[in-house]
Amino acid sequence: MRYVTSAEDARKAMQEIVFSSPKPAMTKTRHGLGVKKRLLYMVSDLSDLNHGRGVSRRRVLEECQEVDIDLDKAKRFLNQLQEEGQIIEIDDKLQVVPEV
Question: Which fold has domain 30-96?
Fold first, then answer.
């Protein structure tokens, strides 16, 4: 921890810390992770709106169209989320698996 005597010194010290920290490596999946997370939240929210009974894949894809998410990408990420066990499909309804 560094101690400074003025607000200006604090600002300069903070700039030094920020500019000296290493930048995180860019990954190829950076954008994809955002879409994947949005889809997970979308399934969760639509499921909640449906009183916890799950939501159809068709409804999720309609929602994706409304927010300009590419449908092929959405389908691919929904399949990935299912393979990872983050969402499940019961009676053609998608539901988020609760965290333990």
Answer: Arc Repressor Mutant, subunit A (1.10.10)
